[in-house]
Amino acid sequence: MARRRTFIGIDIGDAIRGSAKALQKELAKVDPGVKWVTPESMHVTLLFLGDVDDRELHAVCKAVATAARAEPSFSLRVSGLGVFPNARRPKVVWAGVTDGADVLRRLHTALEEKMLALGGYRSEERGYTPHLTLGRVNTPEAAVAVAAELPKRTAWQGGRVMVDEVLVYDSELNSDGPVYTVVGRAPLAGQ
């Protein structure tokens, strides 16, 4: 039985990808100790499922479709920067989701309930924060440099996209980084 590393997410569109890529180039000048996410891999994660058996993938996609039908299409705006877990010890650099964040939280909650009902999924203890991952900090020097740069970028605007579907992704890890493949599409209400 084959298993797939699987997650549920939202595509951010080419305009936001372009803005995020330009920001990454600016931030890369500050310190090279950050591994930047490739633009083609950028997305907003709703729920990371981990390894899913191929035989369970249909049920996962069906549950995602049910949750998606409960929400209308919405506008998502990406702006501002932040880090996880905090500015003293940044490990992940991210762009925030402002418009559309409430819808993403509702979708996350609905999807989590459905995945828990299917079994094989454990909810995360930390709360869900809608965000677009830009990079991972690899060195203590980069952490200091990134933390110093954040206050200068709070007004950064990444753009807006109309969201009309939720996607189920397969994530294959290789030496160049993850490769994401859409294995399921779930239209939002009215689509």
From TrEMBL:
<keyword id="KW-0378">Hydrolase</keyword>
<feature type="short sequence motif" description="HXTX 1">
    <location>
        <begin position="43"/>
        <end position="46"/>
    </location>
</feature>
<protein>
    <recommendedName>
        <fullName>RNA 2',3'-cyclic phosphodiesterase</fullName>
        <ecNumber>3.1.4.58</ecNumber>
    </recommendedName>
</protein>
<feature type="active site" description="Proton donor">
    <location>
        <position position="43"/>
    </location>
</feature>
<dbReference type="InterPro" id="IPR009097">
    <property type="entry name" value="Cyclic_Pdiesterase"/>
</dbReference>
<dbReference type="Pfam" id="PF13563">
    <property type="entry name" value="2_5_RNA_ligase2"/>
</dbReference>
<comment type="function">
    <text>Hydrolyzes RNA 2',3'-cyclic phosphodiester to an RNA 2'-phosphomonoester.</text>
</comment>
<comment type="similarity">
    <text>Belongs to the 2H phosphoesterase superfamily. ThpR family.</text>
</comment>
<feature type="active site" description="Proton acceptor">
    <location>
        <position position="131"/>
    </location>
</feature>
<dbReference type="InterPro" id="IPR004175">
    <property type="entry name" value="RNA_CPDase"/>
</dbReference>
<feature type="short sequence motif" description="HXTX 2">
    <location>
        <begin position="131"/>
        <end position="134"/>
    </location>
</feature>
